[in-house]
């Protein structure tokens, strides 16, 4: 399994607004396109102006196809026009499990 961890840095004070918009409009669209949402986090300590989400894919090719489908979805683009301005930076990591990891 290929794990994608995305961290979105948000404008200070916009976490609740971002989560409200995402849960109401973005979550369904993203879940339908990407498929395997493993976790979605908001920090309670440290830098609290961010969200971290983790997605699982069968392979690099599966990820590329699913992300392309999401990017071409007009409803997703509408969501981005509402929530995108709240994101100031993003960091993406693609991860694979070590031989002893519970997630392979």
Strand sequence of the main sheet, in spatial order?
A: 2-3-1-4
Question: How many domain modules?
Answer: 1
Low-confidence stretches: none
- For the termini, the CA-CA separation is 5 Å
Q: What's the overall geometry?
A: globular
What is the strand tally? Answer: 4
Strand content: 25-35%
What is the element layout, followed by pairings?
Layout (H helix, E strand, L loop, with lengths): L1 E9 L4 H20 L1 E6 L8 E8 L2 H12 L2 H10 L3 E10 L8
Antiparallel strand pairs: 1-3, 1-4, 2-3
Helix pairs in contact: 1-2, 1-3
Can you give a write-up of this model?
There is one protein chain. This protein has 104 residues and is α+β, with helices and mostly antiparallel strands. It has a single domain, classed as 2-Layer Sandwich (Alpha-Beta Plaits), CATH 3.30.70. It has three helices and four strands; from the N terminus they run E-H-E-E-H-H-E. The protein has helices spanning 15-34, 60-71, 74-83; strands spanning 2-10, 36-41, 50-57, 87-96. It has a four-stranded antiparallel sheet. It is globular. The relative contact order is 0.30.
Descriptors:
104 residues; alpha+beta; Alpha-Beta Plaits; four-stranded antiparallel beta sheet; 3 helices; 4 strands; 40% helix; globular; NIPSNAP domain-containing protein; NIPSNAP; Dimeric_a/b-barrel; NipSnap_domain
Brief account:
This protein is an alpha+beta fold. It has three helices and four strands, in the order E-H-E-E-H-H-E. A four-stranded antiparallel β-sheet has the order 2-3-1-4.
